Amino acid sequence: MKGIILAGGSGTRLHPLTHAVSKQMLPVYNKPMIYYPLSVLMIGGIRDILIISTPSHISMFRDLLGDGGRLGLNIEYAEQPCANGIAEAFLIGADYIGDDSVALVLGDNVFHGPGFGRLLEKEMADVEGCVLFGYPVGDPERYGIGEVDEQGNLISLEEKPARPRSNLALTGLYLYDNDVVDIAKNVRPSARGELEITDVNRVYLERGRARLINLGRGFAWLDTGTYDSLLQASQYVQVLEQRQGVRIACLEEIAFRKGFIDAAACYELGRQLARTDYGRYLMEIAGKD
């Protein structure tokens, strides 16, 4: 399976912070925002990853992550000149995806919860059709919404409905088989000229090949696209890391735990940051192996 992070857009809701820097480079507590969606792909076992961003911002991600080799990854980059909808990622990344299935994650989403790693490994191992992830919200009219029947089967999808049929918001994580490329190519642009991800998902639903997984209570899904939500995400990460003594979205640790790099490589990455708590944490976990 290939992975795609869509990290484009102008971040207008975060101006003036994002006048000169990509939204996905802003800090969520002690790490750049893009670390969080990247960690999701890594936790699921994905090592081949395409980062899509604007022409003016893509060099920032290259400087931060390079080719991914230090983390045992293979990272490539592609440009999205204009924000033409989430589904455009499959057109931009068509050649990169090739004959593989693909996981798409939005660059401003934070996921955290018990058993998430096992769930991702299971779902990403063999994708048939489309797998969506739902999260209960108090204001469903602001989101794409999935409705399920009494057996938990997905029966409808709506984009920002005035009268929502459920409170299950669709998060910014999507898993697809290889049909998604052809489906996206045949989706008609919306009135705004965008390729809507909900339209792609509806095709799968109409074919009886879409599933919705309810992440449920005890899980955290945070969209960091506003001042308040960015601050809330930072506070959430800060509290958990300080109280539990573990790191959320620590790429070097995930690479080590997944076997992408060995203990020596993890220790060296920590040594390079030895003046920070982050670096000392890496050195400590690598030294225990």
3D architecture notes:
There is one protein chain. With about 290 residues, the protein is α/β, with parallel strands linked by helices. The protein has eleven helices and 13 strands. The chain has helices at about 35-45, 60-65, 90, 95, 115-125, 180-185, 195-205, 225-245, 250-255, 265-270, 275-285, and strands at about 1-5, 25-30, 30, 50-55, 75-80, 100-105, 110, 130-135, 145-150, 155-160, 170-175, 210-215, 220-225. Strands 1, 4, 5, 6, 8, 9, 10, 11 and 12 form a nine-stranded mixed beta sheet that branches. A two-stranded antiparallel sheet has the order 2-3. It is globular and about 50 Å long. The chain starts with a strand and ends with a helix. The mean pLDDT is about 95.
Blueprint (SSEs and pairs):
Elements: E1 2-6, E2 27-28, E3 31-32, H1 35-43, E4 48-53, H2 58-65, E5 74-79, H3 88-92, H4 94-97, E6 102-106, E7 109-112, H5 116-125, E8 130-136, E9 144-148, E10 154-159, E11 168-176, H6 179-186, H7 197-206, E12 210-214, E13 220-223, H8 227-244, H9 251-257, H10 263-271, H11 277-287
Parallel strand pairs: 1-4, 1-6, 4-5, 8-12
Antiparallel strand pairs: 2-3, 6-11, 7-13, 8-11, 9-10, 9-11
Helix pairs in contact: 9-10, 10-11
Name some characteristics of this structure:
289 residues, 11 helices, 23% strand, nucleotidyltransferase, globular, Glucose-1-phosphate thymidylyltransferase, Nucleotide-diphossugar_trans
